Structure prediction request, 201 residues.
Amino acid sequence: MSNYSEWDRYYREHPLEELGWELGRPRPILVECLQKGLVPKGGKALDLCCGAGTNTVYLAQNGYDTTGIDISSTALGMAKNKEEHANADLCFVNASFTDLPFANNQFVLIYDMGCFHHVRVEHRAKFISGVHRVLGDGGVYMLTCFSYRNGPRWNHFTRQQLRKLFGRHFVFGEFQHYPSLEGDGIIRFFYTVLMKRKQIS
Prediction:
């Protein structure tokens, strides 16, 4: 969905069970990367496009000082409810990913489950620069996005496309390419890529 204003309507009009990206449990790839030590432990974490906050709460419960950002105030209301039930201490910000309202070099981990692949083409450069700006030195940007194996679309990517888009700002680590049974019962293919920020002038 490239019309950003539509996200709040989706959360208002549909139960979470109908929203494919809302699994109701932490993303298995996120759990795997934390358990294997592939991302820094502890420190400040940012959950981009956090939605109903399942992954945000999981990060907080695993030792991160976690902030979730989403354009949908309805989704953030759901996330705050999860925060209360989980007895977690989180910060939620109602803002757009195109203008990240955070200080430079603030986060050791930025988790992006399905945020980038909804960034309109004309906003991609600004989005990537923003993520680079707020990620700390030695921190990890964990990107999960749609794969070309879902069929040809403007936001279904190949490995080569991801390298071209992010290569100026980031050093690439592990790539994973895999199917996932989503919350709406549909199997979709994703890339998850671990990246560290480059020093650029």
Notes: The domain at 6-18+27-170 is CATH 3.40.50.150 (Rossmann fold). The longest helix spans residues 73-86.
